[in-house]
Amino acid sequence: MKYAGLLLLASLCWGSNFIVGEGLTAYASPVTLTILRYGIAALCLLPVLLVTEKRLLPRKKALLPLFLMGITGVALFNILQFTALASSSATNISIISTMNTLSIALFSAILLHERLRGAQIAAMLISTAGVLLVVTEGRLESFSFASGDAWMLLAVLVFGLYSICSRWATTFVSPMMSVCYSGLFGVLLLLPINGFQVPIHRVDAVFISSMLFLSIIATIVCMVLWGIGVQHLGATTSGLFLNFNPLFTALLAFVLFGEHLTWPQAAGSAIVIGGCAAFSLFTKKRGRLRSAPALQKRTA
After folding, report:
1. Where are the domains of the chain?
2. Residue 21 needs a FRET pair 20 to 30 A away by CA distance; which of 27, 156, 161, 293 works?
3. What share of the chain is helix, strand, coil (3-state, %, to 5)?
4. Are the beta carbons of 128 and 95 closer than 8 angstroms?
5. Tens of pLDDT along 164-206?
């Protein structure tokens, strides 16, 4: 029960991430926000690594996957997500983000040749139908949706690639070191794009507190809570708690801004969460996915 509570707390923080991120888009560009988020997180993690792991530098074999994590999970994913939040609701973005689990499975099948059962494919299609209901606001015949939703769908695909790179990297380094150095690589990649500057429209208490929340709570603390949960409850069971993210986002949007769920959002959420939960359960029955060393062998 204690570990379930930790996973719920992590889900609450991740759900808050979309609300906070939506507010931050008024202060700076997606590139600047990404640089600040992971720059602060990496600076906080370096002394922690020195104390807990007695080393600061990763092994040479980890550099390539860490660099790829920086490109996909830090630079591309965050820029796409912040861009999405600038033109869509936090609730929609959080619902679409539940497809991350399915994106991971899709790229595992493509890159690692992990087989998907018919039941798993059916669950993926059900979740996709739920997302379509949300992004089209129930008007499936017109098939038009906000540009922010399209950006987030692209971010979900990028997240699948990032997760594969993360599995590869963590065969050489700890999850904490992988977050730290992928963040550093991502920041180094983005700084030239921003002209080695971090322009901010205005700086106030809201901006500072929001930025610290994203950098420390949503990036570092959530990672620790998630790691503890996975260690004690397993990856599949822990993955089910990610489905609470959009529920917490919707709840916070209602409490803070008075936003109500529309019927397409409510129905789509139920379909997406049900499909993702079913996919996780089918995966659990099938057994654990092939381990990351499979990727290591293919890329050796």
Report:
1. 2-299
2. 161
3. 80, 0, 20
4. no
5. 898 899 889 988 899 999 999 999 999 998 888 899 999 999 9
